[in-house]
C-alpha cells in the first residue's frame, strides 16, 4: 500500500470548505477589541473621514495587519496557509498563492520566476501588458507567435497547435510557452495537446486564465487550464468569481515549476503590508464557490442560454455571438453583442447601452461584451434583455447607411514567429525621441501603444513599426478607441528609439 498516497487522500477528504480560516481570524481580531497601537493609521476605523465613515466603518474594523494572531502572507504558517490549501483543493492545484495586486502581480512573478536575463520564451502575442512588463523586468527575450483570429468577432485566440509545435522545433532553447486562454471574450481552446507537447519538450505551459476563474467548476462551463495539463495558471478571482477587486490567485500543478523561487519572487514584488480585506475576500470567494457557487453557476448558465437563444431569434439590428467551429468552448456568462450593420462600431454600441443604463465590460471596433455573475436570477437577466431590445429597436429607426468597415488588423498572420530586433529591457533603457506617427514607419517603437481594454499592446518597446501599425492606430483613434497612457493623446506622434 502507498502510505503517502493514502495520507494525501485523507488530507483532501478532510478539507472542510465550510471554513474560511483567514476571514475567521480577522473576525476574531475584531471581537477581541484590543487597542491598536500599530498600523494602519485609521486605528480600526476610529480615525477616519466622518462623511464617509458610514460606508467604511464596518470593514475598517477588520482592515488588519500582520500582528500576533494574524498570519503573514510572505511566510504563511496559520490561517493564510490553510486558506491557500483550501483554495488549491477547490481549483485542482498542488499549491495556490494569494495575490493582492491582481493578475498583474501574478504575471510579473511568473516572468521573474521562469526567466533569467537573455532567456528566450515563446509568448502568444495577444497577451496582457503585464506579461510583457514582467518579461522586461526579467530581461527575457520573448519570441512572439501571432494568435488565431475568430472570424466573426475578430477576437484573438490561442494559435493552432501545429504552429506552436513548429515554433518549438525552431527554438528548442525556450524556457516555456505562455498563452492566454480564455481570451477577454470567454473563448476557450482545448490546450490538452499543447500541454503534452510542452512536457515532451521538458518545458512548462503557462496560462493566463484571468477571465476563466470559474472554468472547470461545473460541466456547463469550459474545463480549466489546470485540468488540461497547464503547469502554472493565473486567475483573476475578482473578475468572474466574487472576491474584491485586485485580488487574484496563482495556481501551480506538478513539479516543473520551482515553487520556492516563485514564493521568493512574490515576496519581492508584493507589498509587505498586503490588504487583509483582499486576502480575506479570496478566502470567502472560495468558500462561496464550493458551498453555493457551483450550484448557482449551473442554474445561471441554464437561464442565460435559454434567454440568449430566444433573444437571438427576436433581434433585427443586433446579434449575440453563439460560437464558431474555431472556438472549442465559450463562456456562457459572457454575451458578445454586435450590430448587424457594420457601420455601427462597438464603441458606439457601448455609449448607446450606457445611456440606457446597461454598462458593458468591454467595447472594441466591432463588439461589446456583457459579463454576468455566477448567480443571476430571471429578473436581473431580463433587465439586460430589455436594454438590448430597446437598442435593437433604436437602431432600426436610425437612418444608417450600411457599409462594411475595413477590418482592423492587430496581429500578423496566425502562427507567424518574430523576435523583436531589440529586447524589451534594452528598448526601455534606450534614449528615445518623439516623431510624427506617419514618419515612424521602419523605426523601433519607444513606448507601449495600448488600446484598452483589453490591455493587449499593439506595439511593445523594441518592435519595428510598420505601415500596418500606423494604419491601425489611425483607425482605432478615429473610431473612438481609448489608448492607455500614450505619450500623445491625439496619437499624432509617438516615441521611437534613437
TrEMBL record:
Annotated Orn/Lys/Arg decarboxylases family 1 pyridoxal-P attachment site domain residues: 21-312
Keyword Lyase: yes
SUPFAM superfamilies from the UniProt entry: Ornithine decarboxylase C-terminal domain, PLP-dependent transferases
GO terms assigned for molecular function: carboxy-lyase activity; transaminase activity
Gene3D superfamilies membership: Orn/Lys/Arg decarboxylase, C-terminal domain, Type I PLP-dependent aspartate aminotransferase-like (Major domain)
UniProt keyword Lyase present: yes
One Pfam family matching this protein: OKR_DC_1_C
Domain Orn/Lys/Arg decarboxylase C-terminal, first and last residues per copy: 417-477
Keywords recorded for this protein, A-Z: Aminotransferase, Decarboxylase, Lyase, Pyridoxal phosphate, Transferase
Recorded superkingdom: Bacteria
Protein name per UniProt: Aminotransferase class I/II-fold pyridoxal phosphate-dependent enzyme
Native source species: Siminovitchia acidinfaciens
Amino acid at each position: 500500500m502507498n502510505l503517502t498516497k493514502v495520507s494525501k487522500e485523507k488530507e483532501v477528504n478532510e478539507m472542510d470548505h465550510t471554513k474560511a480560516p483567514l476571514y475567521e481570524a480577522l473576525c476574531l481580531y475584531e471581537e477581541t477589541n484590543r487597542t491598536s497601537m500599530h498600523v494602519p493609521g485609521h486605528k480600526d476605523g476610529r480615525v477616519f473621514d466622518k462623511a464617509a465613515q458610514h460606508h467604511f466603518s464596518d470593514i475598517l474594523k477588520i482592515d488588519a495587519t500582520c500582528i500576533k494572531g494574524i498570519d503573514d502572507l510572505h511566510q504563511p504558517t496559520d490561517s493564510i496557509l490553510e486558506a491557500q490549501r483550501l483554495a488549491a483543493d477547490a481549483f485542482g492545484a498542488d499549491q495556490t498563492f494569494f495575490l493582492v495586486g491582481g493578475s498583474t502581480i501574478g504575471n510579473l512573478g511568473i516572468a521573474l520566476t521562469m526567466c533569467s536575463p537573455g532567456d528566450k520564451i515563446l509568448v502568444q502575442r495577444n497577451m496582457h501588458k503585464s506579461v510583457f512588463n514582467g518579461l522586461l523586468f526579467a530581461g527575457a527575450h520573448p519570441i512572439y507567435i501571432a494568435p488565431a483570429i475568430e472570424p466573426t468577432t475578430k477576437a484573438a485566440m490561442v494559435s493552432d497547435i501545429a504552429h506552436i509545435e513548429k515554433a518549438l522545433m525552431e527554438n528548442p532553447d525556450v524556457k516555456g510557452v505562455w498563452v492566454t486562454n480564455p481570451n477577454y471574450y470567454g473563448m476557450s481552446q482545448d490546450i490538452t495537446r499543447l500541454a503534452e507537447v510542452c512536457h515532451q519538450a521538458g518545458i512548462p505551459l503557462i496560462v493566463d486564465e484571468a477571465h476563466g476563474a470559474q472554468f472547470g467548476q461545473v460541466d456547463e462551463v469550459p474545463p480549466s487550464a489546470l485540468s488540461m495539463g497547464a503547469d502554472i495558471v493565473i486567475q483573476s478571482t475578482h473578475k468572474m468569481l466574487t472576491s474584491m477587486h485586485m485580488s487574484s490567485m496563482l495556481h501551480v500543478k506538478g513539479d516543473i515549476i520551482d515553487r520556492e523561487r516563485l514564493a521568493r519572487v512574490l515576496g519581492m514584488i508584493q507589498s509587505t503590508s498586503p490588504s487583509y480585506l483582499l486576502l480575506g475576500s479570496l478566502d470567502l470567494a472560495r468558500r462561496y464557490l464550493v458551498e453555493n457557487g457551483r450550484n448557482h453557476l449551473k442554474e445561471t448558465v441554464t437561464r442565460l442560454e435559454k434567454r440568449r437563444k430566444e433573444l437571438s431569434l427576436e433581434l433585427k439590428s443586433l446579434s449575440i455571438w453563439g460560437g464558431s467551429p474555431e472556438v472549442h468552448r465559450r463562456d456562457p456568462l459572457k454575451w458578445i453583442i454586435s450590430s448587424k450593420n457594420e457601420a455601427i462600431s462597438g464603441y458606439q454600441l457601448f455609449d448607446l447601452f450606457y445611456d440606457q443604463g446597461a454598462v458593458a465590460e468591454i467595447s472594441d471596433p466591432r463588439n461589446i461584451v456583457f459579463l454576468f455573475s455566477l448567480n443571476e436570477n430571471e429578473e436581473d437577466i431580463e433587465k439586460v434583455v430589455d436594454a438590448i431590445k430597446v437598442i435593437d429597436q433604436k437602431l432600426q429607426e436610425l437612418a444608417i447607411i450600411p457599409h462594411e468597415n475595413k477590418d482592423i488588423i492587430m496581429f500578423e498572420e496566425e502562427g507567424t514567429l518574430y523576435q523583436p530586433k531589440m529586447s524589451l529591457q534594452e528598448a526601455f533603457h534606450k534614449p528615445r525621441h518623439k516623431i510624427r506617427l506617419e514618419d515612424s514607419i521602419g523605426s523601433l517603437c519607444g513606448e507601449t501603444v495600448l488600446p484598452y481594454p483589453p490591455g493587449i499592446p499593439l506595439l511593445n518597446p523594441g518592435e519595428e513599426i510598420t505601415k500596418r501599425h500606423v494604419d491601425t492606430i489611425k483607425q482605432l483613434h478615429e473610431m473612438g478607441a481609448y489608448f492607455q497612457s500614450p505619450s500623445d493623446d491625439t496619437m499624432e506622434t509617438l516615441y521611437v528609439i534613437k
